[in-house]
Amino acid sequence: MIFLDNLINGLSLGSIYAIIALGYTMVYGIAKMLNFAHGDVIMVGAYIAFCGLQYWGLPPVIAILAAMAVCTVLGVTIEGLAYRPLRQAASLAVLITAIGMSYLLQNIALMIWGANPKFFPPTFINSTTFKLGQLNISSATVITILANIVIMVGLTLFTAKTKMGKAMRCVSEDRGAAELMGINVNRTISVTFAIGSALAAIAGVLLCSSYPTLQPTTGSMPGIKAFTAAVFGGIGSIPGAMLGGVLLGVIEIFGKAYISTELGDAIVFAVLIVVLLVKPSGLLGKPVREKV
Amino acid sequence: MKKLFAMMLVVCMLLAGVSALADEPITIRVAHIGPTTGAAALYGLATLHGAEIAAAEINAGDGPYHIELINQDDEHNVEKVINAYNAALDAGAQMILGTTTSKPCEAAGAQGYIDRVFFLTPSASSTAVIEDKDNVFQICFTDPNQGLASAQYIAEHNLGTKVAVIYNNADVYSTGIRDTFVAEAAQRGLEIVSETTFTDETTDFTVQVADAQNNGAEIVFLPMYYTPASLILKTAADKDYQPIFFGVDGMDGILGLEGFDTSLAEGVMLLTPFVATSTDEHVVSFVNQYQAAYGEIPIQFAADAYDGIYILAAAAEKAGITAEMEPEEVCDLMIAAMQEITVDGITGSMTWDASGAVTKSPMAATIVNGEYVFED
Fold first, then answer.
1. Quick check: A213 and B230 CB within 8 A?
2. Residues in chain A where the model's pLDDT stays below 50
3. What is the pLDDT of residues B181-205, one digit of tens each?
4. In what order do the strands lie in the sheet with B358-359?
5. Burial classification of residue A278, based on how many CB atoms lie within 10 Å of its CB (0-12 exposed, 13-18 middle, 19 or more buried)
6. Closest Cα to residue B261, out of B281, B290, B231?
């Protein structure tokens, strides 16, 4: 029973990592850059939803849509202002810009919403607890897992079936050749950021529904863990992000429950190191051969 | 030229002396250092606001001393606190009311020990804050004292015998209270059935709460600040687990957490020397002024800092501090004076010994209908 309880807690935590990891992996797969500001877009999304619920009295669904709209605009703006001018620059320059963007967002949030933590109000997402015998399962867990599956399937279909999805895969494969074939690379990358940021808003709401304290640094640690999950699963692979996230959450909870609460994070990152040593491309990543 | 200068100096000194004789109040410059931004801003703003009210009261009265308050923000950061401390001294501070939180206070207090600057911290409660430093005094009781008093209270009031402890092992405040609590609990026949840890970045408390629940803990002791505590209360509610949650002074502030459903905190007990709903005349006046000025109910940290300004004024009077004295000179005089005064503040009647630790008796409050109620 305790094992099942821990497993459910692990799945719940893991599905939150997975949903954030989807954003990382999508942007990496297509734009070939690590968008470290992703965690902070999540934080902004959560704040917008908080304002919608707490100050403007919006119904939860409208508040989430508002958060998605704001995050989409924010993501496209960040891409246009900060990353697009660096398209030809070294990848290190882009990486540092992304880290800078992350701090910029945190400090802007600090200016707007202040440092005091806010408590995310309960919504339909986390209002009920299902009882299965002695097990208590929060509706937030169920909804997060469902949302994850829907988003993963949706994204996979989108990239496989639609015209824009094909363009994304082309840009991912060979940006130069895609451009020669008449694909608008900038537009494709903008759309990628738009989708990634809209997902970030949903991730923010789900994150705060499970762990309701909201402050300007809320996105950073889950962001790093989700990045780890994305690498774990094979960065660039959408099912990989899902698998990596869920596994990471389960490992973290089991590590805390059965080994030591003090070593929870250490175990997570140790697993990452082992995976990278054994299979550097991640669990579901494609091995890339490099000609020397 | 030198002679002229010397004569001018003498005249100035005479004038200064005369002005003191003529009952002009002496203005001492006190720097408040605390996190007025950042994750612990609630505490820093509370101590600042409490100090501002006390300073305004003193300056409006006809006592021998006036207070000029200088504020510096340390963001609850051990590096930035040194900048804040230096900036405060550059701005002419003679003594420090601060810092608000333990870790930065350790760092700044140690620097102050080298530079000979007097510190009176309203709320930094770890023992390391005053250890080996004769220049730092506390207004709140120390962490060991909180752990000790919590275990005593739980045992004496028969709240239960099976206790779980969840603490932040990355924070001296939390580990300090936990250590003495566990030691005293063993003496008092309390059984620690579950002990789990977390760090500053932890947001998932399902394992810690499940461990307490599965081991049948009747009381969960939470030596931590209110932000992680709010997550633990939420997790416990999700798991339908209803033990007695017992917090310490860091729990104070949980009711002010924006958006927090106060019913989650119903029945939570905490040790605090100050309760805003008290009917004590002095407390009522403070709470009313605080509400009028800042639009919220003051927490214990605000009350500590309010008392702090009065303590500094009392010690300065005892020590005969003047506006011209340098911080080094002020430091030694204040250290001596602190050990001689007794101050009746809104957080109790306080005396100090050479260690810098305060002597006063803690009391327990319970949260009922979103408000603190004193036990006895």
1. yes
2. none
3. 999 999 999 999 999 999 888 888 9
4. B343-345, B348-352, B358-359
5. exposed
6. B231
How far away is chain A from the Cα of B361, in angstroms, using its nearest Cα? Answer: 30
Residue B10 near residue B266, CB atoms below 8 Å: no
10 Å CB burial of residue B242 (0-12, 13-18, 19+) is exposed
CB atoms A119 and B206 under 8 Å: no
- Is the pLDDT confidence value at B40 over 90? no
Which residues make Cβ contacts (< 8 Å) with residue B3, sequence separation at least 6?
Answer: none
Q: A256 contacts in B (CB within 8 Å)?
A: 196, 207-208
- The count of CB pairs under 8 A between chains A and B is 98
- CB contact under 8 Å between A265 and B201, yes or no, is yes
Give first-to-last CA distance, chain A, whole Å. Answer: 54
DSSP conformation class of B136: E
**Residues B76-134: tens digit of each pLDDT:** 999 999 999 999 999 999 999 989 998 999 999 999 999 999 999 999 988 889 989 99
Going from the N-terminus, what domains does chain A have, and what CATH number goes with each? 2-124+132-278 (1.10.3470)
Q: Identify which of A190, A192, A152, A135 has the alpha carbon closest to the alpha carbon of residue A169.
A: A192
pLDDT in tens, A141-194: 889 889 988 998 999 899 899 999 999 989 988 888 998 999 999 999 999 999
Task: Give A3→chain B minimum CA distance, Å.
Answer: 11
Report field, pTM of the whole predicted structure over 0.80: no
**Residue B365 counted as domain residue:** no
Q: At what angle do helices B206-214 and B226-238 cross, to 10 degrees?
A: 60
> Do residues B160 and B188 lie in contact, with contact meaning Cβ atoms separated by under 8 Å?
no
**Residue from B238, B261, B299 to probe the interface with A (highest A Cβ count within 10 Å):** B238
Cα angle: B13, vertex B17, B20; to 5 degrees? 140
Listed residue (B68, B58, B121, B123) closest to B94, CA to CA: B68
Q: What are phi and psi of A121, to 5 degrees?
A: -70, 150
Interface pTM, i.e. ipTM = 0.83
DSSP string of A41-68, one letter each residue = HHHHHHHHHHHHHHTS---HHHHHHHHH
Closest CB from B38, B207, B258 relative to A253: B207
Give the integer Cα–Cα distance in Å for B346 and B308: 10
- In one-letter notation, the amino acid at residue A208 is C
The DSSP output letter for A284 is S
Give the count of domains, chain B: 2
Domain presence at residue B368 = no
B-chain CB neighbours of A222 within 8 Å are: 203
Tell me how close the Cα of A115 comes to any Cα of chain B, in angstroms: 5
Domain that holds residue B159: 144-272
**In a domain? residue B182:** yes
